[in-house]
Design a protein that fits this description.
Layout: H1 7-12, E1 16-17, H2 24-38, H3 40-45, H4 47-61, E2 68-69, H5 71-74, H6 82-103, E3 126-131, E4 138-143, E5 173-179, H7 184-197, E6 204-210, H8 215-222, E7 227-232, H9 236-239, H10 261-264, E8 271-275, E9 279-281, H11 285-289, E10 298-300, E11 302-303, H12 314-318, H13 320-323, E12 333-334, E13 338-342, H14 343-349, H15 351-365, H16 373-380, E14 385-386, E15 415-417, H17 424-429, H18 437-441
Helix pairs in contact: 4-6, 15-16
């Protein structure tokens, strides 16, 4: 056999089978029909599969039954019975094609509705992780989530040939969530719900804000294919700025980490969706991501019918130097648990410093009661890009004291938010859930250790 023979020369038609005496054009038509069947364009787009094809053809080339020589030598070759040799060669080639289709995942397609899950065998796997929680470390165990894959229409627009992407890829959807030991179960359910309802889950990059450094292993174990990065938020940055609130949980430093996203995230990240840990998404998050903010820095569902005055103290409304900040604005209440942020504008206009200044005023003059929300209202109310109410059906955790059950607001729902003191995982654990908590439980990956 000619030592220069290669799969590429086979595809170019430089050789013909000696035993059957195939003419060049006959052999070329055969190869073209095979490549048409396999969709060579798809193969070229997937280098791994093209390599598999090359190796398969190479193995056929080196097979004694499929020896190739130049046309000038065909005439001197011993001729075997034509029909038998044709049958043997065609059977061998067909077998290679079938093996390639069966074992190459690039040829398998998933309908859009099922784009979503690619593996079902690992759903009961438990990963116990010991996490510090004050003076008493807690052992967490979560089921490994199913693998989620993009639907066909998502394409491969930003991936390099390794299939990986960096945080700076321009087509990624960026989502920021805090990971706190006491709300960890909620955060994992939120991520799970986002992946399950996204048509392009591989295009989502999660930015996790933490004050405990041991959480990365837990996230990686629960979501092995997740694109994410852990950002350590130093509690000391805000400890001297936090004032007491109506509920102790509202005083946790991580509640204020959202104020520093523009500093924590890479400069190449131009927009981010910030989400609280006590919610689930039941729609494609890309719809929220693609919301136009116009000239505004943040976008959120607004509630202009709410009693705006109750979010501030009598002292605030009695002094012009405070309430005068709303002059020229039409302020409306919005919940800070679901916000789309233009980080470019945030950095340009220094909104972190503006929020910090109001927190300093609060430390000395007590102008509000509700933790991290009022500074956002003071800075942004009246300058918020409106987003459909469906993207924050909030208040499902009841009020900030009793946490009583509440029903959904009327209208369509894309995101359910258990803001308030009642959290679904806590109510489920004590076997006193509200009816709406059953919706959250579908995304709960937590499994208590026996």
């Amino acid at each position: 056999m000619d030592s220069s023979l290669s799969p590429s020369s086979f595809l170019k038609g430089s050789f013909v089978p000696t035993a059957s005496g195939l003419r060049y054009r006959e052999k070329e038509r055969l190869i073209r029909s095979i490549l048409h069947f396999l969709s060579i364009k798809t193969l070229v787009d997937r280098r791994g599969t093209l390599g598999f094809l090359s190796s398969s053809l190479a193995s056929l080339v080196t097979n004694p039954l499929f020896e190739f020589k130049s046309e000038e030598r065909v005439q001197r070759t011993e001729v075997f019975p034509l029909k038998m040799m044709w049958f043997m060669r065609f059977s061998g080639l067909l077998f290679a094609i079938m093996v390639m289709i069966l074992f190459s995942p690039h040829f398998q397609s998933f309908p859009p509705a099922e784009a979503i899950r690619s593996s079902r065998h690992d759903g009961n796997h438990r990963v116990p992780i010991l996490i510090p929680a004050g003076d008493s470390p807690r052992l967490f165990s979560f089921r490994k989530a199913l693998a989620f894959n993009n639907a066909e229409e998502c394409g491969f627009r930003y991936r390099n040939f390794s299939g990986k992407s960096s945080v700076c890829d321009p087509f990624l959807v960026h989502v920021a969530i805090t990971l706190d030991v006491h709300y960890l179960r909620g955060s994992m359910a939120a991520v799970h719900s986002i992946l399950q309802h996204s048509r392009c889950p591989e295009d989502i990059f999660f930015h996790f804000l933490v004050s405990e450094t041991q959480l990365e292993i837990l996230v990686r174990s629960t979501f092995p294919q997740l694109k994410f990065k852990i950002y350590y938020f130093n509690p000391e940055i805000v400890r001297n700025l936090i004032s007491t609130s109506v509920r102790e949980a509202l005083e946790h430093p991580l509640n204020y980490a959202r104020n520093y996203l523009a500093d924590l995230l890479e400069p190449c990240v131009r927009r981010v969706i910030y989400l609280d840990s006590d919610l689930i998404v039941v729609d494609d998050i890309y719809k929220l991501w693609s919301t136009s903010l116009g000239s505004r820095t943040i976008g959120a569902p607004e509630y202009c019918h709410a009693n705006f005055t109750r979010y501030f103290t009598d002292k605030f409304w009695s002094e012009k130097r405070y309430y005068g900040t709303f002059d020229g604005r039409k302020p409306c209440y919005f919940n800070t648990g679901v916000i789309v942020i233009d980080l470019v504008k945030w950095r340009r206009f220094g909104f972190t410093k503006r929020i910090e200044r109001w927190m300093e005023v609060q430390k000395h003059n007590r102008i509000y009661e509700l933790g991290s929300l009022p500074p956002y209202l003071l800075v942004f109310a009246g300058h918020v890009a409106p987003i459909e109410h469906r993207w924050n059906q909030h208040g499902l955790g009841g009020d900030n004291v009793k946490g009583s059950c509440r029903d959904l607001h009327s209208g369509p729902v894309s995101l359910l938010h258990w803001s308030g003191s009642g959290k679904p995982w806590a109510r489920l654990d004590i076997k006193a859930p509200c009816p709406i908590d059953a919706a959250w439980s579908q995304y709960d990956l937590y499994r208590p250790l026996q």
